[in-house]
Amino acid sequence: MQADIFVKRRNRSLLFFALLAVLTAGSIVITQYDVLKGFTSIFNAFYWGITNFYPDAGSLEKLPDILVKLRETVLMSIASTTVAAVFALFLALAGSRTTSINSAFSIASRGMASLFRNIPLVAWAMVLMLAFSQSPLTGYLALFFGSFGFLSRAFIETIDEVGSNPVEALQATGAGYFHIIFQAVLPSGMPQMISWLLYMIETNIRDATLVGILTGTGIGFSFQMYYHRFDYHAASLVVILIVITVIVIESVSNMIRRVIL
Questions:
Q1: Angle at 116 between CA 113 and CA 120, to 5 degrees
Q2: Domain extent listing, the chain
Q3: Pairwise CA distance, residues 141 & 214, whole Å
Q4: Three-state DSSP string of 79-92
Q5: What CATH number was assigned to the domain covering residues 58-260?
Q6: Please, are residues 137 and 173 in contact by the beta-carbon 8 Å criterion?
Q7: pLDDT of 174
Q8: Which secondary-structure segment (H or E) carries 220?
Q9: What is the mean pLDDT of each run of 10 residues along the chain (261 residues)?
Q10: Is 176 helix (H, G, I), strand (E, B) or coil?
């Protein structure tokens, strides 16, 4: 019996890898992608980066302006994420099976969370540019809607994991809806929610660079401007500062997670 199960799993795995190989080969043929040239170009790309893409003395003179844009990007990411988290919490309370008022409202809230979550951040930025053109508001709203969808779903799952036992215990004592929320649901789920919030801030600082390129704001716009001017030294300084900022934010987030979890 176990041998038959093993054979079936092996055959399914072989079938999967065979289909994957066929799809890969078909994609290469259709797109006319030169695999050999692609791999041999990696060395040339690294060589070009080492010889051209590095900060020099001239790029360091632009450091104050770059830091201003970097600060704008970080603050916009934090502000959009925290405001989105507040709205996501209300939607999560309405959508969770543990705290929902009725099933219809829960289904509608979950559907709204799924809709916002499944729209890519780039799509939000492109759609919002049609209404607000290239402006800081466009970048802020794109990050807000992207964060709102992700955090809504994450908060719903977090509240569902709390379980119904604490809620039923408080209901048995005659506690009202808001007493249950503030005395059972939020204390149990808040550490995990804060962890999701910190993760979203980290992600948005990375994504804000791409959003800035599309919306003409923040550090992304600075990178695009230097790149289009062929000022690769200044563009490399922008990339290095983004990497350092993300590492610092991630280290602080991990420290906070160790404290609260």
A1: 140
A2: 2-52, 58-260
A3: 13
A4: HHHHHHHHHHHHHH
A5: 1.10.3720.10
A6: no
A7: 66
A8: helix 218-228
A9: 67 85 88 81 82 83 88 89 92 80 78 84 84 82 90 87 67 68 76 88 85 82 87 89 88 82 65
A10: coil
